[in-house]
Amino acid sequence: MVDSVRRLHDAFGTVGGGAPVREGRLQLAVGPSGVHTDGREMFTALREVALELGLLRRTQANEQVDVERAAAAYGRRPLELLAEWGWLEPGVTVAHLCGVTDAEIDAVAESGVCVTHAPGCDVPMGWGISPAGALLDRGVSVGLGTSGGGSNDAGHLLADARLAVQVSGLTGRVLSADEALGMATSGSATGLGRPELGTLAPGTPADLCVWDCSGVSDAGVHDWPAGLLWATPGRRPRDVMVAGEWVVRDGELLTAEESELASGLDRLLTGRAVPAR
Length: 277
What we know:
Blueprint: H1 2-12, E1 22-23, E2 26-27, E3 29-30, H2 40-53, E4 56-61, H3 64-74, H4 78-84, E5 92-96, H5 102-111, E6 114-117, H6 119-125, H7 132-137, E7 142-144, H8 157-168, H9 177-191, E8 208-210, H10 224-230, E9 239-242, E10 245-249, E11 252-253, H11 258-270
Parallel strand pairs: 3-4, 4-5, 5-6, 6-7
Antiparallel strand pairs: 1-2, 8-9, 9-10, 10-11
Helix pairs in contact: 1-2, 8-9
């Protein structure tokens, strides 16, 4: 595993004297799945190579499976193990954090790690809810994630921002729409070690999503950030710009044929040809 990380690092080249490897829009980081599948040796080895090469790290904690297997194998909680193994420190992003205790929130806040909230995965899987509001109140940088297709079929970040607000009341601290959108933008960018992303300011890349809010469902909306989440669930942006280049205009993907992408993905997943859409 460590050799693979070094080969990938060498293939991309170093940037800025030990900064995370970036080539265009690609960025290299290391990320063991979690204490439910990887042990101390794996975490230690990947920590060492990440520090050597200046790479960011990512893992997860407190999905239900993490808690159960950590208790069975070590008689410990996942975050206890991560702290002991050197994975609760700056340069690390920890995903999920469902059902963490007040003491664990304190430990996360004091450690300097970033957190990824993934309600669109955690809620339907029955893993619980991360107390994102309490983490924000403690100064933790919280981003928003969708997780993969195994636990979130849509991967729709705006829909998951809406869900984050909806379920936050169950944790005792309701998120505002502004906070949820901030998690999806600047919070996530911070977790990626890319503070120049996720904001609109002079000198930052021109990354834009433009939504049409002139329809019937938006009539009477007085708080546009909140309306973006509440008025039309699952809406798609009308226009998207990435690093100053339009990739979607008037709802049409400009960089590829969407139907061909869909058919190709169907073939990849099913192993058979799929009729044209």
